[in-house]
Amino acid sequence: MAETVPLVRARGIGKEFAAVDVLRDVDLDLFPGEIHALLGENGAGKSTFAKILAGVHRPSTGTLELNGKPVEVTSPIVAQKLGITLIHQEPISFPDLSVAENLVLGRADERWFSRVPWAEMTGEARRLMDLLGVKIDVTRQMRGLSIADQQMVEIARALASDSRLIIMDEPTAPLTPKEVETLFGIARRLRDEGRTIIFISHRLEEVRALCDRVTIFRDGNKIATDTIGNLTDADIIRLMIGRPLKEYMHKTRSQIGEAALRVEGLTLPGVFNDVSFTVRKGEIVGLGGLVGAGRTDVARAIFGVAPAASGTVEVDGKRVTIADPSQAIALGLAFVPEDRAVAGIFRTLSVEQNISAAVPDQIAPSGFIRRSVEKLLAEDAVRKLSIRLASLRQPIGELSGGNQQKAILARWLLTNPSVLILDEPTRGIDIGVKAEFYDMIGELAASGRAILLISSELPELLALCDRILVMSEGRQTADIPRSAATQEAIMHAAVPQVRGVAA
Amino acid sequence: MNALRSILLRREAGIAVMIVLFCLAVGAFKPQFLTLDQLRIILLLTPLIMIAAMGQMMVIVARHVDLSIGSILGFSAMVSGMLYRFDIDWFGFDVPWWTGIPLSIAVGAVLGLINGLLIQLFRLPAIIVTLGTLSLYRGMTFIISNAKQIDRQWIPSELKGLSQTSPILGIPWIIFIAFGVALLAYVFLNHTRVGRQIYAIGSNPTAAPLRGIKVTQVTLLVFTISGALAGLAGILYASRWGFVNPSNTGSGFEFQVIAAVVIGGVSINGGVGTVLGTVLGVLLLGCVAAALPLLGIPGTSQAAIYGAVILIALVIDRTVRRQGIVGLRRVRA
Amino acid sequence: MLKKTLLLGLAAGLAFAGAAMAQDPVKIVYIGKNTGNPYFDSITGGFEDACKAKGCEFEFVAPATAEATSQIPFIEAQIQRGVNVIGIAPNSPDALNQVLDDARAKGILVLTVNGDLTGNESHRDATILPVNFDIVGRDQVEMVGSLIGYEGEIAILSATTEAPDQNKWIVGMNETLKTDPKYAKMNLVATVYGDDQPEKSTTEMEALLSNYPNLKGVIAPTTVGIAAAAQVVQSRGIADKVQVTGLGLPSEMRDFVKDGTVKAFQLWSPYNEGWLAVHFALGVLDGSIKNEVGSTFEVPNLGTITINANNSINTQAELTTFTAENIDDFNF
Amino acid sequence: MSTLETPAPTSGHDAAPARPRWQVVLVRPETMTLILLILGIFAGGLLSPFFLDISYILRSFTLYSEFAMVALVLTMVIIAGEIDLSPAANMALSACIFAWLQQAGVPIPAAVAVGLASGLAMGALNAFMVIGLQLPSIIVTIGTLTLYRGLAQVIAGDKSIRVPEWFIGIDKIMVAGIPLPVVLFVVVALVLGIVLGGTIFGRQIYQVGTSEVAARHAGIRAARIKLVLFLLVGLVAATAGIMTASRLGSVRYDLGLGGELQMVLMAMLGGTYIFGGRGTILGTFLAAWLLVIVSTGMIVANVLPAVQLVVLGALLIVSIIATNFIYSRTQR
Q1: Which is more confident, B223 or A428?
Q2: Cys-Cys with B212: which of A106, A358, A419, C168 at CB 3.0–4.6 Å?
Q3: Partner residues linked to A262 by β-bridges
Q4: Closest chain A residue to D211 measured between Cα atoms?
């Protein structure tokens, strides 16, 4: 393989987002006729790398060559012209347009005033759907299509545009085994035609079944590239995690007390079903599962952001109804949301204001803000959590992701919560700051707070949690005590049971 | 059975039913409302609104709004009117009467393009930009005309004839022009690539560039078309009413057009709307306008009725779609 | 640097103003209903010519829209400019009371020209109207009667329901129809309002024709209304069945008269209003005219003018009638 | 952004350096407004020698004071991420309701109370459509603006309704030589300035406008805050409407017509960020004066009103471009 000219030659690719390096100095060659897996933990940089190839992001550093010629993939349009298609993790579609239109829209050869060949378009769309073996009426609107069907349309679109490099970013997550099988069949056929496929997945079994070579990312660096046969699962996991699990252990073992949060039969139709669990004082309960399993929705329901339809919530043994976050806060709950940029920070407002946002009564008991009190509270928090900043008055958007997250945590600590819900608290945070977070979470539990930790990072769950709950497709599938917790056990519960692994 | 059901479930069917019920209700009190003559009156009330509504519809489908069309109408009508008024002698070559039509369309297109450029280059919300140009273009109309009206005597009789003479069936040209524009809009929106891209942009603005759609260019095109159609409506205003006044011509026109478009089922959330629905919305508005004086309802209630109709259409749109909320803040991306 | 220049300019401007104030000609301003209204071009012409002849300064200003309050800042500004005479065509019979009082308190002569503060006459010094508005109704009825042979259904298409002058004329029309046996066979079936908007006037006219198929004549005592009514009649081709008349501008009606859609309509000379206003104002300021009911004065081209009740002055005794024969003699 | 700094070898930067204090204080949209205001005063003085007269400027400000008061509240609405285009129509409707009631014999205090209540009700309808039905405020308030003014027209028709003599003349009441409406405007500005800048309610307005989702997650009741703001706009608009009634002495449906453009313009000129989250009462306060200076400067110089339309429209566009530019440069 090495003697052929690589389809893509990436050299020194790096990317910086808002002062955080998410990708550093990646060299990679991709050859025609191979299926190449990108592996790594969440935030390891594999999706960023894929998006740079597809023109979604521009690299901060580095060069790309296509068939030996240097290229600049400045936009998705350019990527498409160069024959590169990215199938997004979350399907991108135009809900008001028909399935067939979604398939062909944005083809590079489009002229503005050329006619839309409805009949051919529909015919081709049907052919592609038949090829994939799915039954979707191609004349219907995208709106209302299931995620799996939308994903299929995405894949069909890549096939329709006849790309030389097809990047699939976790395409199989919402698919049924039959669909996965069909997809793999098609992928192999495309490879045999000489195309290159990048396959991003968390599922080692799938990678092993499908891919020829694998590249492993960790913390924004490329760690290794090798033929899949040369690596054992243990090798791959070691390369992905990169350091012994022990490093994460929280040192302080805390005293576990009585129940602080009890959830019984929580249901929101179509999102999650019959979720029941208890978090005790001083206990860290993990909530694992695949993205989209309903974990965040459960947290949002408990906190009153999007209340559940039925089920009960007890806080400190008392049954409560929470219809709005303000009620949850009054009951001593706190929630660090997953999407920090949207639901966490007030980007353009000062760090000080961001920290004091949840405690209006403390900084303004009479309605008028006492700046001195606010400043003291904020300074105290900055010191305690060692938030690194230039000034309390600077907009929080100027801080790095880790320090933003610390400020959000500081906001909640000011409310002195008895129950803390942390949703992916370390996502997009530099590794050094991550360790600080683990220490803090441990200390919080030690001080008698109940903690519900939602995370997609298995090592994080394994290291921190006293118990790990797992959700899959909206249902609770496991409650694993610390002693029995392994990556395999969690994954086993997280992957829908009806699903086998395609061979 | 299913086909019938899907037709009945469409928004257009709802508006059609509303039109029929409304006409029957008015007809019950005033039988002369159900005559062909009345149809002619209604049709003659609507062409300007229909033409501008086609442009506004595209703008709204693309998730913007154009409040300046009334002023664009006034400005382009004024430019053409001045052409007639001064009847400039181009080296002994008489200016033919129809020159005003392409001129007015071109002037409107330029003003629309300016709207689009301001919106796209500076990433500003269309509503505020066009609120500004609404005032700006109106002021320019006064300035170029020196605040003088173009009187009936200056407007060529051939141009006025467009609103009166008929090629066939006693239906004046102006109505054919309006329906012709609607037909072109239909072909453009449904059978050209860029037409579909307009829907795509409105349907999911963040995804559009990822799919290779040149959002800036398409948006500019949409505003240019909206301006050009307002310009066409401008010259037809001169034809229909026989004068161009710097203050009255086109003033308040935008509200009628937006009302018609929203009633026609074009969603303010973008991505949704059909030419047929818009045409029906315009006709419904025309029926209401024609019925009020017939029923002896004072003209002073007309504005209140328009306002109520817009709000009701909004609520219906909301209940029909029950989809995400796209306020000002979502458009900012 | 920029600031300095500005300050210098400012000082220069003030000095200039001071010098200018030393020997002022009389400053007259006329505030129209709105800009772009062709009717006022003619009035303004009268003001301008008279001021040229008499050696006073004249300016015309008007707001962009004709809503009730839009003239207020303009009146305030004229007070501030220290004009001697404000002529105004008021957009509201009462919303201007306060600011006009302010003007008069500063010694400014306030004249309403072509429209009055009906019911609030005490807030202006005098009004200059083209004709005695009491006769308009009668003349208009006579006009439509002569066109339809004094028999059949007629209707009125007016401006807004609360336009004071219009309503005065409509009252006059109703009384004439009721009291004068000459018009006994004429039947007023409807009075409708087109709000001085072409679209609305047109739909009202169309509705009249639908509701009253036997309609013989329409009086539209408003320039917008008569043009809209004529256009409806023209496009329906029923000029022989329905006679449209009223008050209109020759410039707007010329086509309709020439193609026979409209046989005759009336108006007055707006030009003379401006002409008269300047002569009257200068006379009052230099003391040669007493602004009292009953006193008389001479105006070139117009002859002897009498000040009527309510300090109301008219430029002509009768309305001018425009027909195909004479319409080309008028250039407004 | 910070590409000029040396790239850190392993981890990202913790925070960008803080901006110097002088920049925080001076590089902001309000500074632009202030500079424009000073330039406007000089330009006005150059345009007309009658302009630089403090009592004239104060008197002129009373003509805009009602809009300016509403613009202050509107600023808060825009900061909260919504917009309300209906307050000018609200002014007309509540003033019409008030005037109609007092004419029907209802005692003035009761009529005022009902007028204010109707303003609240209009605010509540806006709030219901925007918050309850989750419709975009910009379109909703275009609809309600048509509806409210239409209803005013239904109530008052085309006529103007007089208010009793003693009720007339709020602008003639002087407090230390300053007309009462101006004093009220300053007081409202002070109060709202303190509320927005000093209270937790004001703080939360900014937070809701910056990110409603984040605000909800922090336990801030965004819906409640917006409801209060819409109600407040309704109440202040009704107050402004009744103040206008007192200033004019009569009420017509077209009271405050087109005022929404002026109000939005004041907020935008004052540096309020159209997408929410940023802006100050001080900015709108300065912008109101700027607008009055510019408008009256042009009127007193007898500049064609059309030029004013052009200047206003251009100012609106330029001010949002400038505001967006300043914010994008100073805050990341």
Answers
A1: B223
A2: A106
A3: A278, A314
A4: A346
Chain D residues whose beta carbon lies within 8 Å of the beta carbon of residue B147: 304, 306
H or E segment and range at residue A227? strand A221-227
Topology, domain D32-42+50-330: ABC transporter involved in vitamin B12 uptake, BtuC (1.10.3470)
Nearest-Cα residue of chain B relative to residue D126 = B311
DSSP A132: H
Q: Do the beta carbons of residue C310 and residue C127 sit within 8 Å?
A: yes
Q: D-chain residues within 8 Å CB-CB of A329?
A: 219
**What subunits touch chain B, counting only 3 or more CB pairs under 8 A?**
A, C, D
Domains of chain C: 26-131+270-316 (3.40.50.2300), 133-267 (3.40.50.2300)
| CATH code, B19 | 1.10.3470
pLDDT exceeding 70 applies to what percent of chain B?
Answer: 89
Q: Is the pLDDT score of B204 beyond 50?
A: yes
On whether residue B5 sits in a domain, the answer given is no
How many Å lie between the alpha carbon of C254 and the closest alpha carbon of chain B? 7
Residue C96 and residue C74: Cα distance in Å, rounded? 11
- Say how many C-beta atoms besides its own lie within 10 A of residue A415's C-beta: 19
What residues does each domain of chain D span? 32-42+50-330
The average pLDDT across B180-209 equals: 91
Q: How many CB atoms lie within 10 A of CB A52?
A: 24
| Nearest alpha carbon to residue A105 among B277, B330, B218 | B218
CA distance B132 to chain D (A): 4
Which chain B residue has the Cα nearest residue A103?
A: B211
Task: Pick the residue from chain A with its C-alpha nearest to B62.
Answer: A96
Any domain includes B220: yes
Contact C252 B289 (CB under 8 A): no
* CB-CB contact of A420 with A299 (8 Å): no
- Measured in degrees and rounded to the nearest 5, phi and psi for residue C291 equal -80, 70
Which residue reads 């024709």 in tokens?
A: C209
Tell me the nearest-neighbour CA distance from C181 into chain B, angstroms. Answer: 30
Question: Which chains touch D (3+ CB pairs under 8 A)?
Answer: A, B, C
Domains, chain A, ordered by start: 8-242 (3.40.50.300), 246-494 (3.40.50.300)
Whether B34 has its CB under 8 Å from any CB of chain D: the answer is no
**In this structure, is residue B255 part of a structural domain?**
yes
Q: Which pLDDT score, from 0 to 100, does residue C8 have?
A: 47
Q: Which of A64-73, B109-118, B310-319 has the highest mean pLDDT?
A: B109-118
pLDDT along chain C (332 residues), means of 10: 46 44 76 83 90 90 82 90 91 85 92 86 89 86 91 90 81 91 91 84 88 92 90 87 91 88 90 90 89 87 86 85 87 76
Domains in chain B, number: 1
CB–CB of B327 and D274 under 8 A?
no
pLDDT of B164 > 90? The answer is no
Query: Tens of pLDDT along A85-118?
Result: 888 766 778 888 888 888 877 665 567 777 777 8
Q: What are the average pLDDT values for consecutive 10-residue runs of chain D, which has 332 residues?
A: 34 62 76 89 86 88 94 96 94 95 93 96 96 87 90 86 87 88 96 94 95 92 95 97 92 87 89 89 95 89 83 87 80 48
Enumerate the residues of chain A whose CB falls inside 8 A of the CB of residue B208.
94
| Gap between the Cα atoms of C310 and C124, Å rounded | 10
Q: Chain C: nearest CA to B94, how far in angstroms?
A: 21
Q: What is the pLDDT of residue B310?
A: 79
Name the residue facing C73 among D249, D255, D299 (closest C-beta).
D299
* Selected residue of B46, B153, B287 to mutate for chain C interface (largest C Cβ count, 10 A): B153
Is ipTM over 0.90?
no
Contact C68 D249 (CB under 8 A): no
Distance CA C16, CA C22 (A): 10
Tell how far CA D267 is from the center of its chain: 5
Task: Kindly determine whether residue D213 and residue A342, on different chains, have CB atoms separated by under 8 Å.
Answer: yes
